[in-house]
């Protein structure tokens, strides 16, 4: 778990920026928020915390707020290909750019919920009874389905004011079954969850399970963009061809249209086969990002620390690579949202509701 406090220089590095770039681009110190002092120690560190970082990112970062709300799903029929890692990186970084982001967890394994929650149930100094009680109080999509809760009642906040999520609960299994017996069963999520979320957030990101189930078909129907991570490994290479056909067929049958973006993951640059598979993806797939995600220790460690790679190791090659991936992915996401007919909220609508606690303070003496 991160302390979430960054001295100014490091904060800028999270966004791939630097004090020199600020000067070159004519961004004034006074445009940046006032420092918060790190609460984690008593050293008088001038640093920005999770409450200030979205203001910093909005000014120096590389992702712009969308003019209308947009929804994306991260899905492919394979596990371990970095779906949840990518969700965490994407969501934290959009949120750190001041883009109001909500993650919707759709995988019973609950990896993204674990990564976004601040408490670790196993490490709490609580009795079993207390722990179970707390767990039972967590409400999710199944409660929205039964009418026991409204969508915004099940949205949880994080330490970053622009980042929220709907947690995965064990009842997702039952929800998947219930959806089978429902009229317009592919549209429940879009109409009852994603549409209301789009009124409150700029970006809704769904982390999917690798299993093709009713929650997934609901997620696809609700998405402007589908992002599929593809491992640069031979087993995934075979899987990918079947998968592409499945997605195309689904779009035709359901008469829905979303942009399908691929991102190559787990590239082992030292392995010839891995590089060849990456090249093949690049040449043969429309919308395959130019930047791959390599196998990296920072990738693994940042996930364990529940933060994005750019926050965990801002100056590492893995962070540069992740920023490039996200830059490309965000550009395609915005293009897809703008191209979609019958689009949703206007900019005026979304800017009216600012997240609570966003600092608009001036910076004082930016010494880096
Ligand atoms: N760049 C990386 N290189 C190697 N391992 C990574 C990287 N990024 C994340 N991981 C690790 O890979 C594991 C599987 O990733 P995950 O995102 O959970 O896959 P999926 O959601 O597709 O099942 C995670 O435990 C994570 O720590
Ligand atoms: Mg996952």
CATH third-tier fold name of the largest domain: Rossmann fold
Please state the oligomeric state of the protein chains shown.
single chain
SSE run: EHHEEHEHEHHHHEEHHEHEHEHEHHHH
Radius of gyration from the CA trace?
A: 20 Å
Order of strands across the main sheet: 6-7-5-8-4-9-10-11
CATH class of the largest domain: Alpha Beta
Provide the number of structural domains: 2
Ligand types? adenosine-5'-diphosphate, magnesium ion
Q: Count the beta strands.
A: 11
CATH superfamily of the largest domain: P-loop containing nucleotide triphosphate hydrolases
- Specify the number of helices: 17
Overall CATH architecture of the largest domain: 3-Layer(aba) Sandwich
- Unreliably modeled segments: 343-368
Query: Average pLDDT value?
Result: 88
Envelope shape: globular
Helix share, percent: 40-55%
Summarize the structure.
With 368 residues, the protein is of the alpha/beta class. Helix content is 45%, strand content 13%. The longest helix has 23 residues, at 317-339.
Secondary structure blueprint with pairings:
Elements: E1 6-7, H1 8-14, H2 19-24, E2 36-37, E3 46-48, H3 53-60, E4 70-74, H4 83-96, E5 101-106, H5 111-116, H6 128-136, H7 141-146, H8 151-154, E6 156-157, E7 163-166, H9 172-180, H10 188-200, E8 203-208, H11 214-221, E9 225-231, H12 234-254, E10 259-267, H13 272-284, E11 293-294, H14 297-304, H15 309-312, H16 317-339, H17 347-352
Parallel strand pairs: 4-8, 4-9, 5-7, 5-8, 9-10, 10-11
Antiparallel strand pairs: 1-3, 2-3, 6-7
This protein binds adenosine-5'-diphosphate and magnesium ion.
Magnesium ion binds at residues 83-84, 107, 111.
């Amino acid at each position: 778990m991160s302390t979430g406090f960054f001295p100014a220089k490091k904060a800028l590095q999270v966004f791939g920026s630097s004090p020199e770039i600020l000067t070159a681009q004519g961004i004034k110190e006074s445009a940046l928020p006032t420092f918060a002092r790190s609460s984690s120690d008593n050293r008088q560190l001038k640093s920005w915390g999770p409450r200030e970082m979205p203001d910093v990112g909005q000014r120096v970062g590389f992702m712009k707020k969308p003019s209308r709300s947009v929804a994306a799903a991260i899905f492919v029929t394979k596990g371990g290909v970095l779906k949840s890692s990518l969700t965490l990186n994407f969501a934290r970084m959009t949120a750190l750019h001041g883009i109001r982001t909500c993650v919707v967890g759709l995988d019973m394994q609950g990896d993204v919920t674990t990564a976004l929650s601040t408490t670790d149930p196993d490490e709490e100094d609580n009795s079993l009874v207390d722990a179970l009680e707390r767990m039972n109080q967590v409400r999710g999509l199944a409660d929205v389905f039964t009418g026991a809760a409204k969508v915004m009642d099940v949205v949880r906040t994080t330490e970053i004011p622009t980042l929220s999520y709907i947690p995965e609960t064990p009842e997702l299994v039952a929800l998947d079954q219930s959806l089978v017996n429902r009229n317009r069963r592919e549209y429940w999520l879009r109409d009852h969850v994603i549409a209301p979320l789009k009124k409150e957030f700029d970006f809704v990101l769904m982390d999917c399970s690798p299993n093709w189930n009713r929650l997934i078909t609901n997620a696809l129907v609700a998405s402007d963009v589908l992002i599929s991570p593809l491992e640069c490994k031979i087993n995934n290479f075979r899987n990918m061809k079947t998968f592409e056909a499945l997605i195309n067929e689904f779009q035709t049958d359901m008469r829905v249209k979303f942009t399908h973006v691929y991102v190559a993951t787990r590239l082992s640059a030292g392995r010839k086969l891995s590089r060849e598979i990456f090249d093949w993806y690049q040449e043969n797939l429309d919308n395959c990002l130019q930047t791959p995600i390599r196998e990296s220790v920072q990738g693994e460690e940042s996930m364990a620390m529940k933060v994005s790679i750019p926050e965990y190791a801002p100056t590492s090659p893995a962070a540069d690579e992740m920023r490039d991936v996200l830059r490309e992915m965000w550009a395609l996401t915005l293009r897809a949202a703008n191209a979609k007919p019958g689009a949703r909220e206007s900019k005026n609508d979304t800017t009216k509701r600012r997240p609570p606690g966003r600092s608009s303070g001036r910076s004082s003496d930016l010494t880096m």
